[in-house]
Amino acid sequence: MDIPRIFTITESEHRIHNPYTSEKLATLGAALRLKPGTRVLDLGCGSGEMLCTWARDYGITGLGVDMSLLFCGQARLRAKELGVTGQVEFVHADAAGYVAAEKVDLAACVGATWIGGGVAGTVELLTHSLCPGGIVLIGEPYWLRMPPTENVAQGCGATAVADFLTLPKLIESFGDLGYDVVEMVLANQDGWDRYEAAKWLTMRRWLEANPDDDFAKEVRDQLTNEPKRYATYTREYLGWGVFALMAR
Ligand code: SAH
To answer: d(Cα 138, Cα 130) in Å, to the nearest integer?
Structure first.
C-alpha cells in the first residue's frame, strides 16, 4: 500500500507537501492558540512537519496517518531531529475511514480531502475522532480567479472548474455544513513557488542519478513542462488555505 511513485520522486525533498511555508505553519499554530498537551490528529500528515514543529513550539501531542511509507519514515526522522519523539506518532496506513482510538482536541486534514471523498466527507470523518467542542482543520485549494474555461482548470491540475470553489463560496460551504469558520491562514504565491518550484530541482537531480529508471521519461516530461504550466495556470488561478472549523 502506497501512493503513486511519482509523488515520492517529485516531493522527496519537501518537508511541507502543500503551498505553505514553515512561517505559515507557525502562524497557523499561533492563530489556533495551541496549549501544551493539545491532542492533534492529522490525516494525510505527509512528512509530519506540522505535528513535529507544533510539538516543539507549542507542546502538542500528535498522531499522524499517511499512506506514503517514505513520508512516514521522514516524519519519524524529523521527530527525532526536533526532539519530540515522545510527543508524536506516525502510522503508515490508508486514512480513509480512520478514526482515532482516543478522541482529540484538533482533527486535521491538510491538503488531502480526497481521503474523505471531498471536503464535506472529510469534515464528517474527522468529527468521529473529535472531542466535543474540538476544532476541525481543513487545508484546501480554492479559485483565486474563476478559470474562464475547463482547459484552464485542467491546466491547474483540477479535473474541472467544479472541483474547487472561490474563497467566499468555500467559506459559505463550511457554514452550510453547520460549522463556524473560527480561523484561517491563507497561502500565497511565494508559498506556491516553494511547493511547486522545489519539485523541479528534485526532479533534475533525480534524473541525473536515475537515467535508466522506468520513470525517467515521465519525470523528464514533467521537468520540461511543469515550470511553464505552473506559471501559466496554478500560480495565477489557484489559492490555498487552512480553515479552522467549530460545530455550531
Ligand atoms: N498534510 C501534509 C501532506 C499533504 S500532501 C502536508 O501538508 O505536508 C497529501 C498527503 O496525503 C501525502 O502525504 C500522501 O502520501 C497522503 N495520502 C494520499 N492518500 C492518502 C490516503 N488514502 N491515506 C492517507 N494518506 C494519504
So the answer is: 14
